[in-house]
Specification:
about 240 residues, 9 helices, alpha+beta, 6-stranded antiparallel beta sheet, single chain
Length: about 240
Protein backbone atom coordinates (compact mmCIF):
# COMPACT_ATOMS: atom_id res chain seq x y z
CA UNK A 1 0.00 0.00 0.00
CA UNK A 2 1.25 3.47 -0.75
CA UNK A 3 2.02 5.47 2.36
CA UNK A 4 -0.76 7.70 3.58
CA UNK A 5 -0.24 11.36 3.03
CA UNK A 6 -0.27 13.31 6.21
CA UNK A 7 -2.51 16.30 6.42
CA UNK A 8 -0.61 19.49 6.93
CA UNK A 9 -1.50 20.92 10.30
CA UNK A 10 -2.02 24.66 10.30
CA UNK A 11 -1.13 26.57 13.44
CA UNK A 12 -4.19 27.93 15.25
CA UNK A 13 -5.13 31.40 14.09
CA UNK A 14 -4.49 34.14 16.60
CA UNK A 15 -7.70 35.60 17.98
CA UNK A 16 -8.48 39.24 17.34
CA UNK A 17 -8.99 41.61 20.26
CA UNK A 18 -12.79 41.38 20.17
CA UNK A 19 -12.57 37.60 20.53
CA UNK A 20 -9.98 37.86 23.31
CA UNK A 21 -12.16 40.29 25.26
CA UNK A 22 -15.16 38.02 24.69
CA UNK A 23 -13.15 35.10 26.07
CA UNK A 24 -12.42 37.07 29.24
CA UNK A 25 -16.09 37.95 29.64
CA UNK A 26 -16.97 34.28 29.25
CA UNK A 27 -14.43 33.42 31.92
CA UNK A 28 -16.27 35.94 34.12
CA UNK A 29 -19.45 33.92 33.65
CA UNK A 30 -21.16 35.55 30.65
CA UNK A 31 -22.29 33.52 27.63
CA UNK A 32 -21.98 34.62 24.01
CA UNK A 33 -25.72 35.19 24.10
CA UNK A 34 -25.32 37.48 27.14
CA UNK A 35 -22.57 39.42 25.38
CA UNK A 36 -24.72 39.77 22.27
CA UNK A 37 -27.52 41.24 24.38
CA UNK A 38 -25.11 43.66 26.04
CA UNK A 39 -23.84 45.04 22.70
CA UNK A 40 -27.38 44.83 21.23
CA UNK A 41 -26.46 42.50 18.40
CA UNK A 42 -27.32 38.96 17.28
CA UNK A 43 -25.32 36.11 18.90
CA UNK A 44 -24.18 35.03 15.42
CA UNK A 45 -22.11 38.23 15.20
CA UNK A 46 -20.30 37.36 18.43
CA UNK A 47 -19.43 33.96 16.95
CA UNK A 48 -18.02 35.77 13.91
CA UNK A 49 -15.47 37.47 16.17
CA UNK A 50 -13.81 34.03 16.11
CA UNK A 51 -14.68 32.68 12.66
CA UNK A 52 -14.61 35.77 10.43
CA UNK A 53 -12.32 38.13 12.34
CA UNK A 54 -15.14 40.61 12.95
CA UNK A 55 -15.77 42.79 15.98
CA UNK A 56 -13.23 45.63 15.68
CA UNK A 57 -16.02 48.23 16.03
CA UNK A 58 -17.03 46.72 19.37
CA UNK A 59 -13.59 46.62 20.99
CA UNK A 60 -14.02 49.96 22.88
CA UNK A 61 -17.39 48.80 24.23
CA UNK A 62 -16.07 45.36 25.17
CA UNK A 63 -13.13 46.95 27.03
CA UNK A 64 -15.49 49.15 29.04
CA UNK A 65 -17.79 46.20 29.78
CA UNK A 66 -14.86 44.10 30.97
CA UNK A 67 -13.59 46.94 33.17
CA UNK A 68 -17.07 47.38 34.64
CA UNK A 69 -17.25 43.67 35.47
CA UNK A 70 -13.69 43.11 36.72
CA UNK A 71 -13.06 46.45 38.42
CA UNK A 72 -16.45 47.95 39.08
CA UNK A 73 -18.17 44.73 40.13
CA UNK A 74 -21.14 45.48 37.84
CA UNK A 75 -23.05 42.33 36.85
CA UNK A 76 -26.51 43.61 35.84
CA UNK A 77 -27.10 43.07 32.09
CA UNK A 78 -29.20 46.24 31.52
CA UNK A 79 -26.52 48.35 33.24
CA UNK A 80 -23.78 46.75 31.15
CA UNK A 81 -25.90 47.32 28.03
CA UNK A 82 -26.12 51.03 28.87
CA UNK A 83 -22.34 51.17 29.27
CA UNK A 84 -21.81 49.42 25.93
CA UNK A 85 -24.22 51.77 24.13
CA UNK A 86 -22.08 54.77 25.12
CA UNK A 87 -19.03 53.20 23.49
CA UNK A 88 -20.51 51.62 20.35
CA UNK A 89 -20.15 53.63 17.16
CA UNK A 90 -21.90 52.99 13.87
CA UNK A 91 -19.77 52.18 10.83
CA UNK A 92 -18.95 55.05 8.48
CA UNK A 93 -18.63 55.21 4.71
CA UNK A 94 -15.49 56.32 2.88
CA UNK A 95 -16.81 59.89 2.97
CA UNK A 96 -17.25 59.74 6.74
CA UNK A 97 -21.05 59.53 6.72
CA UNK A 98 -22.81 57.00 8.94
CA UNK A 99 -23.25 53.73 7.08
CA UNK A 100 -26.73 52.43 6.53
CA UNK A 101 -27.51 49.08 8.10
CA UNK A 102 -30.00 46.48 6.95
CA UNK A 103 -33.01 46.40 9.20
CA UNK A 104 -36.55 45.12 8.96
CA UNK A 105 -39.16 47.82 9.37
CA UNK A 106 -41.66 47.43 12.16
CA UNK A 107 -45.02 47.59 10.41
CA UNK A 108 -48.00 48.73 12.45
CA UNK A 109 -50.94 49.92 10.37
CA UNK A 110 -52.94 53.09 11.15
CA UNK A 111 -55.53 50.87 12.84
CA UNK A 112 -52.83 49.55 15.17
CA UNK A 113 -52.67 46.12 13.59
CA UNK A 114 -49.25 44.54 13.63
CA UNK A 115 -47.86 40.99 13.63
CA UNK A 116 -44.44 39.54 14.33
CA UNK A 117 -43.26 35.93 14.48
CA UNK A 118 -40.16 34.24 15.82
CA UNK A 119 -39.10 30.72 14.92
CA UNK A 120 -36.48 28.43 16.41
CA UNK A 121 -33.40 30.46 15.46
CA UNK A 122 -34.88 33.77 16.62
CA UNK A 123 -36.23 32.16 19.80
CA UNK A 124 -32.69 31.06 20.67
CA UNK A 125 -31.53 34.70 20.56
CA UNK A 126 -34.43 36.00 22.66
CA UNK A 127 -36.82 36.88 19.80
CA UNK A 128 -35.05 40.24 19.48
CA UNK A 129 -36.88 41.02 16.25
CA UNK A 130 -40.15 41.24 18.22
CA UNK A 131 -38.88 43.81 20.72
CA UNK A 132 -39.33 46.84 18.40
CA UNK A 133 -42.89 45.73 17.63
CA UNK A 134 -43.76 45.57 21.34
CA UNK A 135 -42.00 48.88 22.04
CA UNK A 136 -43.87 50.65 19.25
CA UNK A 137 -47.16 49.10 20.38
CA UNK A 138 -46.47 50.42 23.89
CA UNK A 139 -45.66 53.89 22.52
CA UNK A 140 -48.98 53.96 20.65
CA UNK A 141 -50.98 52.63 23.61
CA UNK A 142 -52.00 49.44 21.79
CA UNK A 143 -53.20 46.09 23.06
CA UNK A 144 -51.49 42.82 22.23
CA UNK A 145 -51.99 39.08 22.22
CA UNK A 146 -49.60 36.24 21.57
CA UNK A 147 -49.47 32.63 20.46
CA UNK A 148 -46.86 30.19 21.72
CA UNK A 149 -45.94 26.68 20.73
CA UNK A 150 -44.64 24.23 23.32
CA UNK A 151 -44.35 20.51 23.81
CA UNK A 152 -47.74 19.23 25.01
CA UNK A 153 -46.15 18.15 28.28
CA UNK A 154 -45.05 21.74 28.93
CA UNK A 155 -48.59 22.98 29.55
CA UNK A 156 -50.21 22.62 32.96
CA UNK A 157 -53.83 22.72 31.76
CA UNK A 158 -55.45 20.35 29.24
CA UNK A 159 -56.16 21.48 25.68
CA UNK A 160 -59.12 23.84 25.42
CA UNK A 161 -59.23 24.54 29.17
CA UNK A 162 -61.03 27.81 29.95
CA UNK A 163 -58.67 28.23 32.90
CA UNK A 164 -55.73 28.31 30.51
CA UNK A 165 -57.06 30.89 28.04
CA UNK A 166 -60.63 31.95 28.87
CA UNK A 167 -62.74 33.43 26.11
CA UNK A 168 -60.41 32.47 23.28
CA UNK A 169 -62.40 30.85 20.49
CA UNK A 170 -59.32 30.10 18.41
CA UNK A 171 -58.82 26.33 18.38
CA UNK A 172 -55.72 24.83 19.95
CA UNK A 173 -53.45 23.65 17.12
CA UNK A 174 -52.01 20.22 17.78
CA UNK A 175 -49.05 19.15 15.67
CA UNK A 176 -47.65 15.76 14.73
CA UNK A 177 -44.42 16.44 16.63
CA UNK A 178 -46.34 16.41 19.96
CA UNK A 179 -46.38 20.19 20.28
CA UNK A 180 -49.34 22.53 20.65
CA UNK A 181 -49.98 26.14 19.74
CA UNK A 182 -52.11 28.11 22.18
CA UNK A 183 -53.26 31.73 22.02
CA UNK A 184 -53.47 34.17 24.91
CA UNK A 185 -55.45 37.39 24.58
CA UNK A 186 -57.68 38.62 21.75
CA UNK A 187 -59.58 41.69 20.63
CA UNK A 188 -62.76 40.07 21.99
CA UNK A 189 -61.31 39.62 25.50
CA UNK A 190 -59.35 42.89 25.50
CA UNK A 191 -55.90 41.34 25.27
CA UNK A 192 -52.97 42.72 27.25
CA UNK A 193 -51.52 46.19 27.73
CA UNK A 194 -48.54 46.48 25.38
CA UNK A 195 -46.87 48.91 27.80
CA UNK A 196 -46.95 46.27 30.55
CA UNK A 197 -45.33 43.69 28.27
CA UNK A 198 -42.75 46.26 27.11
CA UNK A 199 -41.76 46.75 30.76
CA UNK A 200 -41.51 42.98 31.19
CA UNK A 201 -39.25 42.75 28.14
CA UNK A 202 -37.04 45.58 29.45
CA UNK A 203 -36.80 43.83 32.83
CA UNK A 204 -35.68 40.67 31.01
CA UNK A 205 -32.83 42.56 29.35
CA UNK A 206 -34.65 42.74 26.01
CA UNK A 207 -35.34 39.00 25.86
CA UNK A 208 -38.92 38.73 24.55
CA UNK A 209 -38.92 34.94 24.84
CA UNK A 210 -37.91 35.10 28.51
CA UNK A 211 -40.55 37.76 29.27
CA UNK A 212 -43.36 35.70 27.72
CA UNK A 213 -42.08 32.51 29.36
CA UNK A 214 -41.98 34.22 32.77
CA UNK A 215 -45.58 35.45 32.35
CA UNK A 216 -46.76 31.95 31.45
CA UNK A 217 -44.99 30.49 34.50
CA UNK A 218 -46.19 33.23 36.86
CA UNK A 219 -49.80 32.76 35.78
CA UNK A 220 -49.64 28.98 36.22
CA UNK A 221 -49.96 28.01 32.58
CA UNK A 222 -46.72 26.18 31.81
CA UNK A 223 -44.00 24.28 33.64
CA UNK A 224 -40.88 26.28 34.54
CA UNK A 225 -38.69 23.99 32.42
CA UNK A 226 -40.93 24.21 29.32
CA UNK A 227 -39.28 25.63 26.21
CA UNK A 228 -40.99 28.08 23.87
CA UNK A 229 -40.56 26.79 20.31
CA UNK A 230 -42.51 29.42 18.38
CA UNK A 231 -43.84 32.85 19.29
CA UNK A 232 -46.22 35.23 17.53
CA UNK A 233 -47.19 38.72 18.72
CA UNK A 234 -50.31 40.52 17.44
CA UNK A 235 -51.31 44.12 18.18
CA UNK A 236 -54.41 46.30 17.69
CA UNK A 237 -55.82 49.63 18.79
CA UNK A 238 -58.39 49.44 21.60
CA UNK A 239 -61.88 50.70 20.77
Amino acid sequence: MPPRTRRRQHPPRELNEAARLTDRLQQAGYTKRDIARIIDRDPSLVSQFYTKNKGAAFVPALRQILAAVETGGITDLPELTAIAARHTRRRTTASGARARVRAKAVLITPTGTGTGRAGAQAIASGSARLRPLIAEAARQGLRLAFTVRLAKTGYLHPSGSRTDSPGIRRDVIQRADHTEERSYGSAQTGGFDAADFARRVDAAGGDVTAAVHQWLVETGRIRPDAQVLHLEIRTWRPR
